[in-house]
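User: My instructor asked us to take a sequence, write out its structure as tokens, and then describe one feature of it. I'm not sure where to start. Here is the sequence I was given:
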Amino acid sequence: MSETTLYCANHPAVETVLRCKKCEKPICVKCAVRTPTGYQCKECVRGQQKIFETSKPYDYITGFITATILSIIGSFLISLAAFVSFFGFIIAFAAAPTIGVIIAEAVRAVTGRRRSPKLYKAILAGIVLGALPMALLQIVSLNIFGIIFQAIYLFISAPAAYYRISGIRIFK
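Assistant: Let's start with the prediction itself. The structure tokens for your sequence are:
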């Protein structure tokens, strides 16, 4: 059996023994992406990821608007918890992730469960934009508890919604 020296398709000066499991192109360690089923080149991985991006252009608008409106409502509800003193903190810490999940599920329903990383970022921007009016109102009125509660709302509900809609599992 004769052995021929393989060179990386992207780095012709680098010798390699790896091949992409999908397209069989020789790849070096820098170009290899480890997947659960073996090494692939970056091009094949990108092509595979494109299959899962199903959002349509109008999904960005409807998702953003839905997230913004629901975030305005959620931000207002969290500001009401500031009037309950100490128990308000417990309510805020319990309600903020719940509101995030509600926003995520509503957006998933509106967008028809379509997905893409850009859509997740648009929804995240809608949540932050929806919380701004109430946060600015609390800042202008110098309501310290209101500012704290809005910070709790943003720092808990936005990641909860993002993780829920993007399908990232924190616990397995």
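For the description part of your assignment, you could build on this observation: The mean pLDDT is 89. Try explaining in your own words what that tells you about the chain.
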